[in-house]
Amino acid sequence: MNQFTNIITGLIQGLRRVIARAAPVVSAPARPIWAGPEMRWIIAPHGDLPLLPGPIWTLLWFRLHRLNNRLTRLYERWQTNTLPKPRPTTQRPKTARPPPAEIPAFPAPGMPLVDAPTRLPQGRGWITRRIPEAGPSAGALHDLLQQPHTQDFVQAAPQAARLLRPLCHALGVDQPAWLKRPPRPRPARKPRPAKPRRLRLTDPILKLRPYEIAAARYFIKKYGREG
What we know:
Strand content: under 5%
Number of strands: 2
């Protein structure tokens, strides 16, 4: 293994160890509250943060393992010039998403099983805000993104950028310009038809005399425009 794979593997494995140690404490079962058709155990909050369902840390733990394998495999294929050719972008028809699959028990002892939806939070830096011990992993990722070798790898394998962006967002690491997603072109707005201008009593097209204008204004003031 080379320097990049050593750094990314050590970073992700260290983050998984931190989650395995801290998740049972952060996600200790609190009290049952109403969260749907039945009572469910909800995770105790960390500070003033909102409650999270228990399988979140299990889902993150397994996704980090998959992320490590995919990044190291991509890097090795880049080194050996065996990267897959980019596929042409096509628009897929929208289909209904299947329900989330069940997740096995967390490998750390004492991790509670919770019956709740398994979707990771979307807030920036949500991992480091809930588990401060993940700060060194965020610093290691920031240092890794500052290396020119990493930029060359990501530019040659755009798949790596799609894997690194969510990790940067979850750890609160600023993305360099070459890693950010390019802005999507906005569709051109259709010109709106101009509304016809409301005629005024003083418009020359009406050819009203001053006393006719005064009489019309008095009528409108007394009876309204609908009168």
